[in-house]
Design brief:
The protein has about 525 residues and is α+β, with helices and mostly antiparallel strands. The protein has a domain of about 110 residues: Alpha-Beta Plaits (2-Layer Sandwich), CATH 3.30.70. The protein has 19 helices and 18 strands. A hairpin with a 2-residue loop joins strand 8 and strand 9. Helix 4 packs antiparallel against helix 18 and helix 17 runs antiparallel to helix 18. The chain starts with 17 loop residues before the first helix and ends in a 15-residue tail after the last helix.
């Protein structure tokens, strides 16, 4: 069963060795862990629903609690402490377009807000109901989860929008195809959610970001249906798909989408390499990203992340062996680990491996083969479970991300790390901060930062620590001209930082489209545009 107040399937536990806790104690201090509120306790705080009965709407407290919050750090604080300010008044599970239309009609009549809900994996407050005199209805898309059509001639698959990553890939795999969109939340996030948040998968370098594979689809908007035909290319004016991508449930409910799929690759391999320092590593991966070699992934960790990842994975022996080995080879002081993936035909992969290896070596890399790369592959969807264990040991973890052009990667990453490292000084607390470059482009890269800090006994104090850190990092990103989000979207947490990126005219364009499609403001108020 899915965990109600944390990440993932509650049968899966990430075992953290004692050495990992000791490592954190040394880095940021000891914590005396304290228990969370129980499901039963929190359930008793759900107020009466303000919605009139409707055959598609479930108003039981349990359903409403399970849809109250997503996966951001403030969401975790609320769920774990039981201090949840607002719950949806009901949850509906539509099974077709007609149901969605009837829910939109109902919302209009009931003067209610609607929140489209995919997998609820948002990390920036997308699916949270906000305080309002009007009731909120969450529209859970999970019953719209089928493959509708596979056009093998055109390699276009049409799925209902509530399909999750594993179900989608399973349907394609049976027929010899793959989408290859693997965000770390893949187990639970949905096709509609990926589109609505402009999601990016770990191997988007090869399989494409959502804007590359989203070919068309269907939305139910408050003013009527909108169908986007899948066209290989078009010069017929602005592309309407671009308005739907990243629309965060504000413009309509996506009920199905047509996606570009590929045949299952013959082979896929992951390898690792080390660099002496961050700057050398960054320059080397830029050279690879600009070489047009057909890789599927490049992920370069800074020295702190290299060490922390291995320590928290309980690989103490590996760390000490690696440190000794790397030290002997002159890579010991500030080693940075690169994981890179190759995907495709066996013959091409062999040549690519040789070419990438030569290029990396010429730029100072020490190639260490497949073992670490394979370890990464095996744990790629398991690592987020560590958040649960860390929380239970008294530590809060969050991540943030941006993308900048290559000319600013080093300065921006340094500035974000410094802002976070200093962020809690006046509260007399420390944060453990580390980063990697997660997605590479010819012109730039995304910087993905993780920060760990101590929880306080008072949830308000934990939230304050997070707010300090988040604000310090977000302001630094804006100052350095980075995007406020490379892949997580805007939601509520990034909404204050959107205007500097889009500009006054840009913001008014977004608001005008929203106003035209949703004149009564039914859909997901406050998200993306920060309008309440
Ligand atoms: C552990 C973890 C790892 C993550 N890793 C990644 C990653 O690698 N890459 C990445 O891009 N993101 C990642 N995320 C963030 C998150 O998974 C993505 O934003 C994802 O795309 C959200 O999909 P969802 O189906 O869960 O949408 P939800 O969280 O349910 O909703 C997100 C937004 O989309 C809207 N929405 C959802 N479905 C529809 C629909 N059918 N029609 C209209 N609007 C809709 C909602 O209203 C909301 O505004 C991660 C999150 C977690 C918790």
């Amino acid at each position: 069963m899915r965990r109600w107040n944390g990440w993932g399937d509650d049968a899966k536990i990430y075992p953290l060795p004692a050495s990992a806790t000791q490592y954190l104690e040394r880095a940021i201090g000891e914590v005396d862990p304290f228990p969370d509120a129980s499901f039963k306790q929190v359930l008793s705080t759900v107020p009466a629903s303000r919605l009139a009965p409707h055959p598609l709407i479930n108003t039981t407290p349990a359903e409403r609690l399970l849809h109250a919050r997503g996966q951001s750090l403030p969401d975790w604080v609320a769920l774990r402490s039981g201090q949840i300010e607002v719950f949806p008044d009901g949850v509906a599970y539509p099974t077709n377009d007609e149901d969605v239309r009837s829910l939109l009609k109902y919302a209009r009549q009931a003067d209610a807000h609607l929140i489209p809900y995919g997998g609820g994996t948002s990390v920036v407050g997308h699916i949270n109901p906000l305080p309002s005199d009007q009731p909120t209805l969450t529209v859970d898309m999970s019953h719209l989860n089928k493959l509708i059509d596979l056009d093998e001639t055109s390699r276009l698959a049409t799925f209902e929008a509530g399909v999750t990553g594993p179900s989608l890939e399973e349907e394609l795999r049976k027929r010899g195809y793959i989408l290859g969109h693997f965000p770390q939340s893949w187990e639970f996030s949905t096709l509609g959610g990926w589109i609505a948040t402009r999601s990016s998968g770990q191997q988007s370098y090869y399989y494409g970001r959502v804007e590359d594979f989203f070919a068309g689809g269907h939305l139910e908007t408050p003013i009527g249906p909108l169908t986007l035909p899948p066209l290989p290319a078009s010069a017929a004016g602005p592309d309407l798909r671009e308005m739907i991508l990243g629309s965060e449930g504000r413009l309509g409910i996506i009920t199905r989408a047509t996606i570009r799929v590929q045949s299952t690759p013959e082979v896929e391999r992951f390898y690792a390499a080390f660099f002496r320092d961050w700057e050398t590593g960054v320059k080397a991966v830029r050279a690879v990203a600009q070489s047009d070699l057909p890789l599927s992934m490049l992920r370069l960790s800074n020295p702190q992340e290299t060490e922390t990842t291995l320590m928290l994975a309980g690989r103490e022996r590996l760390v000490s062996l690696a440190e000794r080995g790397l030290g002997l080879l002159g890579y010991g002081d500030e080693p940075c680990m690169l994981i890179y993936g190759l995907t495709g035909f066996r013959g091409i992969l062999a040549i690519t491996r040789w070419r990438v290896g030569a290029l990396l070596r010429s730029r100072g890399a020490l190639l260490v083969g497949k073992t670490i790369g394979e370890m990464w592959r095996k744990s790629r969807f398991y690592t987020p479970y560590m958040r649960n264990t860390l929380w239970e040991r008294g530590y809060a973890v969050d991540t943030l991300e941006t993308a900048v052009s290559w000319a600013s990667v080093l300065s921006t990453s340094e500035a974000i790390l410094a802002a976070l490292q200093d962020g809690l000084k006046d509260l007399d607390e420390r944060a453990l901060v580390f980063a990697h470059l997660s997605h590479m482009y010819r012109d730039g890269a995304s910087i993905y930062v993780t920060f760990i800090f101590r929880r306080a006994t008072d949830p308000g104090e934990t939230l304050l620590r997070w707010q300090r850190l988040k604000m310090a990092a977000s302001e630094t990103i804006v100052r350095h001209g980075g995007t406020i989000s490379h892949q997580h979207g805007v939601g509520t947490d990034h909404a204050p930082y959107l205007a500097p990126e889009k500009g006054e005219v840009g913001m008014s364009m977004l608001e005008a489209v929203r106003q035209r499609l949703d004149p009564e403001g039914l859909l997901n108020p406050g998200k993306l545009l920060g309008d309440i």
